[in-house]
């Protein structure tokens, strides 16, 4: 039976107008694919959305994010002990001038927590040389604020008596590096979009610090050998598992991580990543590892170990490429980099005072730091929680795994041990050579190229912010929306600082 003329006509009109309707109601949207859901990938998604809205002409694009694990956050992760206690297993502390982290915390309604060993609000420090404590500060078990203040003053005096005015020179070195780093929060008007890490570091006056090692930088700044061998080494071993041979910049960042006012996020720093992803309209693929990225005509084709294939106009790698097996076609070229492995071991039990040549557990400092001595089996041991005098939870950082026999010699009682082997951060080696932000001269980007400058949550966010601006200007041909929050953010700096 022939269809009536009117309905044939209607169908024809519909068919003819279909491409038009499609084009109008759903303009073809580009896809930005992000590999990695740590703070780098999540803040990239956030800044891409922030800088392309609320501008109605803003770039329209979808974001797909791939995470090989079942949870987001990467190196921001917590560990659960059988007691029900939850501790930071990876990135744990933030600096009072980590303004993006502060911004995210506020935006996501997260709660700032000032870290303290719950054993005391001012943990005692001991510097261990594998035979004896070469230096110890006082501990304070009192909850009374005035007692804590007195102990804190006494400890400052003890530290000053040992290291003298060199401490002020160290402080000046750190503050100068922080001052330069703050330039990355300047508004877009005054801050270029950087196409390379070198350019980004030179603009902020930080590049030279990556060309020499920390030991030389600090000697030139007039620090005493004792301060370098002891306190500075203790800090670089705790924060980067490495010696004074790290670059001056990584060293300055590490030393900044021992300043006053450090903080973290109640419930876990990983919530920054999950919150940013949730509010950035991201198509998140958990348990999906990307094994290859190929440029095929106009697209990047991302293939996953699940056998899926995704087309993206822009691809961003937000994970260190040093220990992952992603095949690139055409191949990319980046400088060889080794990751420093840090073994984080969480132990519930009690330390053995005899191991430290002491008579009682109470004599062992709550934070045991170490100096560079060959074969010293750990970098640091700190009390995370004091359940009672003979039952505590400790965190140990070491360069090699802590096996059972070793733990049995250090602990007189051990109820539980959880071990995590982190491919933690670059093994810093000045002069640093940086991988490109743009891996292929097209639209394949690499956030973690910046990690050779320093590896922190904040530096990942700063690098990701720059990559977001690069993507928006290079691919979408638009300068990032000037109505970004950064304008008001710059003036918020002091408020955030005061909030803490
Ligand atoms: C023990 C330790 C302590 C630290 N302490 C601090 C600290 O106190 N303060 C601080 O600021 N920083 C600290 N850091 C450094 C900080 O954790 C990192 O600099 C930061 O978290 C890096 O974030 P990212 O997003 O760049 O990378 P990551 O957090 O490593 O995220 C990358 C993500 O990509 C995923 N991935 C990798 N390959 C693939 C693939 N092929 N397909 C899909 N997904 C993939 C990974 O699973 C991971 O989730 C510490 C790190 C460690 C390990």
UniProtKB/TrEMBL annotation:
Residues 147-477 form the Prenylcysteine lyase domain. It comes from the Eukaryota. SUPFAM superfamilies: FAD/NAD(P)-binding domain (SSF51905). The keyword Transferase does not apply. One of its GO terms (biological process) is prenylated protein catabolic process. Residues 1-23 form the signal peptide. GO terms for molecular function: prenylcysteine oxidase activity. Its cofactor is FAD. InterPro entries: FAD/NAD-bd_sf (IPR036188), Prenylcys_lyase (IPR010795), Prenylcysteine_Oxase1 (IPR017046). Keywords: FAD, Flavoprotein, Glycoprotein, Oxidoreductase, Signal. It holds the Pfam family Prenylcys_lyase. Belongs to the prenylcysteine oxidase family. This is Prenylcysteine lyase domain-containing protein. The lineage of its organism: Eukaryota, Viridiplantae, Streptophyta, Embryophyta, Tracheophyta.
């Amino acid at each position: 039976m022939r269809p009536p003329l009117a309905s044939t006509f209607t169908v024809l009109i519909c068919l003819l107008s279909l491409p038009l309707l499609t084009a109008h109601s759903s303009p073809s949207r580009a896809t930005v694919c992000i590999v990695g859901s740590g703070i780098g990938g999540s803040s990239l998604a956030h800044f891409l959305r922030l800088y392309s809205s609320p501008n109605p002409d803003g770039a329209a694009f979808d974001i797909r994010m791939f995470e090989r694990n079942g949870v987001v956050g990467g190196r921001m992760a917590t560990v659960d002990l059988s007691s029900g206690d939850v501790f930071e297993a990876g990135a744990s502390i933030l600096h009072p001038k980590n303004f993006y982290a502060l911004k995210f915390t506020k935006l996501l309604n997260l709660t700032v927590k000032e870290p303290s060993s719950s054993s005391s609000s001012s943990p005692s420090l001991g510097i261990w040389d594998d035979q004896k404590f070469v230096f110890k500060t006082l501990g304070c078990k009192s909850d009374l604020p005035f007692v804590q203040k007195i102990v804190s003053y006494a400890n400052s005096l003890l530290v000053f008596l040992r290291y003298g005015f060199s401490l002020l020179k160290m402080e000046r070195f750190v503050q100068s590096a922080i001052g330069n780093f703050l330039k990355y929060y300047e508004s877009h008007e005054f801050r270029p979009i950087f196409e390379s890490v070198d350019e980004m570091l030179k603009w902020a006056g930080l590049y030279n610090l990556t060309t020499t090692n920390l030991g030389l930088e600090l000697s030139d700044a007039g620090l005493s050998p004792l301060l370098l061998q002891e306190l500075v080494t203790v800090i670089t071993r705790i924060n980067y598992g490495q010696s004074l041979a790290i670059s001056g910049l990584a060293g300055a960042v590490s030393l900044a991580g021992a300043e006053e006012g450090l903080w973290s996020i109640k419930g876990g720093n990983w919530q920054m990543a999950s919150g940013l992803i949730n509010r950035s309209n991201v198509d998140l693929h958990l348990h999906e590892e990307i094994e290859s990225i190929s440029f095929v005509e106009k697209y990047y084709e991302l293939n996953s170990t699940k056998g899926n294939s995704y087309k993206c106009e822009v691809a961003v790698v937000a994970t260190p490429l040093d220990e992952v097996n992603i095949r690139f076609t055409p191949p990319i070229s980046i400088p060889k980099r080794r990751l420093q492995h840090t073994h984080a071991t969480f132990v519930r039990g009690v330390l053995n005072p005899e191991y430290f040549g002491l008579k009682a557990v109470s004599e062992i400092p709550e934070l045991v730091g170490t100096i560079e001595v060959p074969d010293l089996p750990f970098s640091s041991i700190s009390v995370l929680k004091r359940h009672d005098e003979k039952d505590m939870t400790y965190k140990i950082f070491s360069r090699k795994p802590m096996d059972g026999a070793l733990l049995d010699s250090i602990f007189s009682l051990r109820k539980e041990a959880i071990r995590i082997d982190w491919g933690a951060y670059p093994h810093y080696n000045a002069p640093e050579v940086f991988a490109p932000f743009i891996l292929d001269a097209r639209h394949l980007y690499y956030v973690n190229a910046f990690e050779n400058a320093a590896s922190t949550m904040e530096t990942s966010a700063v690098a990701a912010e720059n990559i977001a601006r690069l993507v928006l200007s290079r691919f979408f041909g638009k300068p990032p929306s000037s109505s970004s929050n950064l304008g008001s953010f710059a003036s918020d700096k002091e408020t955030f600082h005061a909030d803490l």
